[in-house]
TrEMBL record:
Ranges of residues in domain Glutamate-ammonia ligase adenylyltransferase repeated: 79-323, 591-827
Adenylyl removase: region residues: 1-490
Lineage: Bacteria, Bacillati, Actinomycetota, Actinomycetes, Propionibacteriales
Protein name, UniProt field: Bifunctional glutamine synthetase adenylyltransferase/adenylyl-removing enzyme
Pfam families: GlnD_UR_UTase, GlnE
Keywords in alphabetical order: ATP-binding, Magnesium, Multifunctional enzyme, Nucleotide-binding, Nucleotidyltransferase, Transferase
Family assignment from sequence similarity: Belongs to the GlnE family.
Requisite cofactors: Mg(2+)
């Protein structure tokens, strides 16, 4: 014998979570329990549906009639039970108004969508207004009208929810019906508002223009209804502008409160007018002329994007249409505005930044792979192409996506996949909101809620698992397609991919590139055509890479330079097997490459000269040690007999290492002090290897078996301080010490020849940046001997040395060449640069006098003393001279000051109490800041400069390297001025006394 379906075991198998409670509840339904149990089990939450039905039978006038109707008519039963199992809020509404269950017995409910005019008429009639009147006015008492409006609104919502849950309406159909219901509700609320305002309401024509989802005919079950109000005088108000404005404002204010206020029948939804001109600070309503003036003069890009969905929905529809007609031409020219791409990107960033961290991964609307990604992408494509192609202008997201797909702006498969993902996400959002009629966009985490959601969407077997799996699949699809949507149709056009897929016209592709920030879209099109033409494997991979690369180029300061550089490198390496495969398979390499190419001329030039360096971008970008570099350079140069070829091999290693350091710097992976140290170590290795090559060359020329003298190179200036920048010369001194028994003149001639050969070899034109060796800091300057012996240096410094030469020796670092010569040179100069008693008052005065002369005479003509990075106020020279004066005064007694590095010396001065903590911090931060800016300027421009760029793109690129978001170059300059101003104040106290 079969057990009854109302037994606990049977109910468990049917999907009830609490079968014992369900058995008790079913008993209360009497003989209707058995036939209804199986129907209840098909709902989203059988336990909730059963409990709701029991509640309803307790308050309905004739419970027997209700139960008989459900048993006799499966359609009525499923419509009612589906609502009871999916919406706690609508269950509560039915319990308050049990007579409305009969609304769900309408046999046409499942197949017929109500006309918008019928919904409007019913809502107006409910509050006692005449739908045929040009200005319908409520006649029910105010409080009663407000409550009746809520009840009537929920009656229509109940009918829609039943149709949606039972027949699984297409999400755009449900959203359109919700939008029609909202429009009718706004009309009825305005009718109540007219009654409140009284006779003065006749002074103003008021139009309610829906924005956002309501305007786009894609409203959620619960959402703020975004509106803009526009007004004009009636005949009665033509001569009373103030009265018209007052009446229109009162009507709009009351409409908002009527919909938003909480009463015994709850609330409807918030009416939000914050999208109006000037937002909440602006007047609630304006005339058409006032709106036009604002949008023509003051509106930002996002405001035109919002207007894309503007639609008159209530009040004076003719006036509302006039508003739409006035603003539509502005909407479809918004993409041509200056900064369009930057504005839209900044808007998206703001949205993402405001997502609470705890909700980020479960956000349906704003999170990555969420609804906003689809809507943002579709709207951007509409704004780019809508002016030339009116077919892509529909305000509804799915309709617009369909037109973009049909027009070839989106690939057919991509359009279909995105449509499917968006429809799923919107349906899931609807089901989440329907349960409590609350404005929610976060997928719940608790098992029961997820089970109800999954079952409401048709996932009866393993509803939680299938729901999560499907949701994550669509999230991934949206993330992927969001990237592709901007760019793939462009590639379809320019590469002329064969197949049935529609293609963009060249004109449309050009407009898209312009919208992305390319200043020369025609040139960019030519590059794309060259990269993607043909049916080769390389062209196929390029077509895969370029959609993402274009996005990264567009996010960087100079997209045109990025694409052009990519083309040149691709042409150099396109046939190399590893190149495109690396870019395709290692996303980090491609992203780094795109940022570098679109930001830095210096690094781009290096990549063009060293295209194999692309491989390096996938690894660590920290500078190599001087020992490792020297070993590699010596090995490379040792393979060549000719000096020129040997040094070109050395310089090739240097070129690659320059690219490594520049790339790490551009990507924010290397500290500025490490950049300076890395460039200095690289110069050490280059000079060490080149000194070896030059010595071999001179010995070969002079037929010498061995060198008659030992040589060393002393690093000076910023090189000696381990603080080189990309454009720095290598300031050096050459020193030698003849071998025992060697002829002094032969030794001096040999040393001179080696030094000259070294400088010649490094100056040979080649594919790497020049390394100029500058020996002008030697005794007697350019008139003095290029190379001296240790004794000659000692004699000169003992007899002729000036205080400025002692100051210059503070940065001397004997780093290249013979170790013993280097050691002895250091021992010789230490007493001079670190005098035991410090320098005299006269010497201090002389240092200050020289600094004043430098400030007056060496600043380039036309340079701004406030922003010059080296010689300006608070610049590098100010800070370094201040630290060096402290060293000359106190290094004799404070050993920690005996260093060639500025930051180390500054830290030692702070530890010794020679400068207080705050002043030392200001100087250190300012030195690091100015050094970073100086390096960034060289990276951007490709050549050294001590002035901030005037070009807008170059300045933006400098700001980008420093970590500022797009559009913040002015903030970068202001910060720079603040740093140098603070540093100058410290210099005034410490250096100038």
């Amino acid at each position: 014998m079969n057990r009854p379906v109302t037994s606990a075991g049977s109910l468990t198998r049917l999907g009830f979570l609490d079968p014992d409670a369900a058995v008790a509840a079913l008993r209360r339904l009497g003989d209707a329990a058995e036939p209804l149990a199986a129907l209840i089990a098909r709902t989203a939450d059988p336990d909730e549906a059963l409990a709701g039905l029991v509640r309803l039978t307790e308050v309905v006038g004739e419970p027997r009639d209700l139960l008989d109707a459900l048993v006799d008519d499966e359609g009525t039963a499923m419509r009612l039970l589906s609502v009871l199992g999916a919406s706690e809020a609508l269950t509560d509404h039915l319990v308050r108004h049990p007579e409305q269950w009969t609304q769900l017995s309408d046999p046409t409910l499942g197949s017929t969508r109500p006309a918008a005019w019928a919904v409007r008429a019913a809502l107006l009639q409910a509050v006692g207004a005449d739908p045929a009147s040009p200005a319908p006015t409520a006649t029910l008492p105010d409080a009663e009208a407000v409550d009746v409006l809520r009840v009537e609104y929920r009656r229509w919502l109940l009918r829609l929810a039943a149709r949606d849950l039972t027949h699984h309406l297409a999400v755009d159909d449900a959203a359109a019906e919700l939008s029609d219901l909202a429009a009718g509700t706004l009309e009825a609320a305005l009718a109540i508002a007219r009654q409140r305002v009284g006779a003065d309401a006749g002074l103003a024509r008021l139009a309610v223009i829906a924005m956002g989802k309501c305007g786009g005919h894609e409203l959620n079950y619960v959402s703020d209804v975004d509106v803009i109000f526009a007004h004009a005088p009636t005949e009665a108000g033509e001569d009373d502008d103030a009265g018209t404005l007052r009446a229109a404002t009162q009507l709009a204010s009351h409409l908002i409160r009527i919909c938003s206020d909480h009463t015994a029948e709850g609330t409807i939804w918030q009416v939000d007018a914050a999208l109006r001109p000037e937002g909440k600070a602006g007047p609630l309503t304006r005339t058409i002329a006032s709106h036009r003036g604002y949008y023509e003069r003051w509106a930002k890009t996002w405001e035109f994007q919002a207007l894309l969905k503007a639609r008159p929905v209530a009040g004076d529809l003719e006036l509302g249409q006039e508003f739409v007609d006035e603003t539509t031409p502005m909407v479809w020219s918004a993409a041509e505005r200056d900064g369009f791409v930057e504005d839209t990107q900044a808007m998206r960033r703001r949205v993402v930044e405001h997502i609470p961290a705890k909700d980020a991964e479960r956000q349906l609307k704003l999170g990555s792979g969420g609804l906003r990604d689809v809507e943002f992408a579709v709207q951007l494509l509409q704004l780019v192409h809508g002016r030339a192609d009116e077919r892509v202008r529909p305000p509804t997201t799915l309709s617009a996506l369909a037109e973009l797909t049909n027009g070839g702006y989106v690939g057919r498969e991509d359009g279909e996949a995105l449509h499917e993902a968006y429809a799923f996400l919107r349906t899931l959002e609807h089901r989440i909101q329907l349960y409590g009629l609350r404005r929610l966009h976060v997928v719940p985490e608790d098992e029961i809620a997820l089970r109800r959601l999954g079952r409401s969407m048709g996932f009866i077997k393993d509803p939680v698992g299938v729901l999560n799996k499907t949701w994550q699949h669509h999230r991934r699809e949206v993330r992927r397609l969001h990237e592709k949507l901007f760019y793939r149709p462009l590639l379809s056009a320019v590469a002329k991919i064969p197949g049935d897929e529609a293609r963009l016209s060249p004109e449309a592709a050009e407009k898209r590139l312009a919208a992305l920030g390319f200043l020369d879209p025609q040139g960019a099109l030519r590059h794309l055509e060259a990269l993607t033409a043909g049916v080769t494997r390389a062209a196929q991979i390029q077509r895969t890479l370029l959609p993402v690369l274009l996005g990264w180029f567009a996010d960087a300061p100079d997209p045109d330079a990025g694409l052009f550089g990519f083309r040149r490198i691709s042409e150099s390496l396109g046939s190399t097997p590893w190149y495109l495969a690396t870019l395709r398979d290692e996303g980090q390499v491609a992203e780094r490459l795109a940022r570098i190419l679109a930001t830095s001329r210096y690094a781009t030039d290096l990549l063009e000269r060293e295209p194999q360096g692309v491989r390096m971008l996938g690894g660590e970008l920290a500078p190599m040690s001087a020992e490792a570099l020297t070993e590699e350079m010596l090995a490379s140069s040792g393979r060549h007999d000719e000096a020129e070829a040997a040094v070109l091999a050395v310089r090739g290693v240097r070129r690659r290492e320059l690219l490594r350091i520049a790339s790490g710097d551009l990507l924010g992976l290397i500290d500025v002090a490490d950049v300076g140290a890395g460039l200095s170590r690289l110069t050490d290795a280059t000079l060490e290897a080149t000194l070896d090559v030059a010595g071999r060359s001179v010995r070969r020329q002079r037929d010498l078996d061995a060198a008659p003298t030992r040589m060393a190179i002393i690093a000076m200036g910023r090189y000696g301080g381990f603080e080189l920048s990309y454009g720095s010369d290598a300031d050096v001194l050459f020193v030698h010490e003849p071998e025992p028994g060697a002829d002094p003149q032969v030794a001096a001639s040999y040393a001179q020849a080696v030094a000259n050969e070294l400088r010649r070899l490094l100056a040979i034109a080649g594919p790497d940046p020049a390394l100029e060796v500058d020996a002008d800091l030697r005794p007697e300057g350019k008139q003095g001997s290029l190379v001296r012996t240790l004794d000659s240096y000692a004699a000169y410094y003992a007899k002729w040395s000036k205080v400025w030469e002692a100051q210059a020796l503070l940065r001397a670092d004997a780093i290249v060449g013979d170790p013993e010569v280097r050691r002895r040179f250091t021992e010789m100069i230490d007493p001079l640069r670190y005098p035991p008693e410090g320098i005299s008052a006269d010497d201090i005065f002389e240092v200050r006098r020289i600094k004043a002369r430098v400030d007056e005479e060496r600043l380039p003509r036309g340079a701004d003393p406030h922003t010059h990075l080296k010689l300006g106020r608070g610049g590098l020279a100010d800070i370094e001279w201040t630290v060096q004066l402290l060293q000359m005064r106190y290094a004799g007694s404070v050993p920690a000051l005996r260093t060639s590095r500025t930051l180390e010396a500054l830290a030692a001065a702070r530890e010794a109490g020679l400068i207080d903590e705050d002043d030392a911090s200001v100087l250190a931060q300012s030195w690091r800041r100015v050094s970073r800016v100086r390096n960034a300027v060289t990276l951007v421009r490709g050549k050294p400069s001590d002035e901030l760029p005037r070009d807008v793109r170059e300045r933006a690129a400098v700001a980008s390297i420093l970590g500022y978001p797009a559009g913040s170059s002015d903030a970068m300059v202001n910060d720079q001025l603040r740093y140098t101003r603070l540093a100058r104040a410290v210099v005034e106290r410490i250096f100038w006394g």
